[in-house]
Amino acid sequence: MIQSLFLLSPTGEILIERHFRDNTPRSICQYYWDKASVSLNHHGGLAATSASVSTSLASSDSLFDTVPPVLEVPLTHQGSSNKSLYLFSILRDGLSYLAACPSEVSPLLVLEFLHRVADTFSDYFGNPADENAIKENFSTVYQLLEEMLDHGWPLTTEPNALQDMIRPPTVMGKITEVVTGSNAVVAESLPKGTISNMPWRKAGVKYAQNEIYVDIVEEIDAIVDVTGRVVSTDVSGSIQAQSHLSGVPDLLMTFKDPDVIDDCSFHPCVRYTRFELDRVVSFVPPDGNFELMKYRTKNNSSILNPPISCIPQFSYGETKHQNTNGTQQGSVSVMINIQPNSCLTFTSKKGSLLIEEVSCTISFPKIVKTANLTVNMGNVLYDEAAKVAKWVIGKLDQTKKPHLQGSMLLNANEDTPEENPPLQLTW
Questions:
Q1: Helix, strand or coil for residue 192?
Q2: Lowest CB count within 10 Å: 28, 157, 329, 353, which one?
Q3: What span, in angstroms and rounded, lies between the C-alpha atoms of 82 and 89?
Q4: CB burial of residue 53 (10 Å; 0-12, 13-18, 19+)
Q5: Taking the model in full, what pTM does it have?
Q6: 268-326, pLDDT tens digit by residue?
């Protein structure tokens, strides 16, 4: 399974190194970082681009993360040219989590475990669990890894069980450890839930007021043409819960239209057989915060009408005369409108639902050398090296329509694009 775990800082420094089987050479971290450092979005996004890095990339497609989640790293330095390791990686809070495996394993298993490790660090050290949090809690990090992996196999990953064995770091706990010399973080006995059939649930939980909070968080990705017609949609969501219930509560969640839900993944507390038979979620919840399930909905463009629409117009200077320096002028105009009859907005006593954190990303084609852009709302930043404009609007005002306009300096030696570039609109 997992032979070694590495944790890299945003600058490529090795923060954590733990070997569970054979020792893995540190050279694989350098192999990984050589590929990660080329990617513009791997540590910082568009704001962290540099001209030296950007000019080495051939197209705007390289703006996305170019590091695949699984890499086959050859180990030629050990004398065997055909020996290699499989390196799995994720990026969380600016830190790179790496897992080295000597043989082929299920990729989703390793990647999900790395995400679970990152979530555990966030629960213990706060969000975000960045480089400073890891450096301040080195001993706790290694103790957590000892409990979460046994000879390279995932063992204990439930937050409640881990917190019973390894207490979250506190100021008082650190003072006690310094004064008495005893380890006040590690528990002297195993938690009672470890040997039960519900390891995610603490034993003997009592609350004066029993309550549970449930949040449904959904993300909608849609492709909309210039006329406003929805071409395709993809809706993914998760159900987040916070439970403060005494004893061993047995809960049941039902859906108004369960046939819409598709491609589900559940917390181990959910009885999957019951869901397959009755399309209901029956579970005994863990104590505290947890993610009950993830899901996607079946593709049905008729149920989605975005709350905002985008009308772009590009002109590549077909009627303009070429300048003496081999350039010509073009123009760009982007208008954003609010759709009052959208199915994603609703009215209440406090008024209509506000549309916030609106931003638009425009990837210009190769024919564009530079652009001079102005907006009537928000601010726009144009990256000449990447040929990408980021327009941050913020909160939409129904009395004022956001409008971006400007001129483009075109390279007359390049072919004029047959289609307008795609725009990414988020809110």
A1: helix
A2: 353
A3: 22
A4: middle
A5: 0.67
A6: 899 999 999 999 999 999 988 899 999 988 765 455 677 787 888 888 875 444 555 55
* Cβ proximity of 421 and 363 under 8 Å: yes
352-386 burial code (b ≥16 CB/10 A, e <16): eeebeebebbbbbbebbbebebebebbebebbeeb
* Residues 75 and 25 sit within 8 Å (Cβ to Cβ): yes
Q: Are 301 and 232 in contact (CB under 8 A)?
A: yes
Res 311: pLDDT: 82
**Cα-based angle 414, 419, 422 (whole degrees, multiple of 5):** 105
What's the pLDDT score for residue 270?
94
Q: Report which secondary-structure segment, H or E, holds 425.
A: strand 423-426
Question: Is 363 strand, coil or helix?
Answer: strand
Name the average pLDDT for the chain.
Answer: 80
Coil, strand, or helix at residue 387? Answer: coil
C-alpha atoms less than 13 angstroms from C-alpha of 233 in its C-beta half-sphere: 18
Rounded to an integer, what distance in angstroms lies between the CA atom of residue 144 and that of residue 147? Answer: 5
Amino acid letter for position 106: S
| Cα three-residue angle 179-185-186, rounded to 5 degrees | 125
Least confident span in 40-44, 55-59, 127-131, 256-260: 55-59
pLDDT value, residue 64: 41
Question: What residue spans of 259-365 are helical by DSSP H?
Answer: 272-278
Q: What is the Cα 273 distance to its own chain's centre?
A: 30
Token digits of residue 109: 């298993």
Cα(83)–Cα(207) distance, rounded to whole angstroms? 56
pLDDT at 116 over 70: yes
State the Rg of the chain over Cα: 26
DSSP 8-class letter at 182: S
* Sequential DSSP letters for 54-115: HTT-SSGGGGS----SEEEEE-GGGT-TT-EEEEEEEEETTEEEEEEESS---HHHHHHHHH
**What CA–CA distance (Å, rounded) separates 408 from 76?**
50
Question: pLDDT by residue (tens digit) across 164-196?
Answer: 788 888 766 666 666 666 655 665 555 555 556
No. of helices (H) and no. of strands (E), the chain: 8, 23
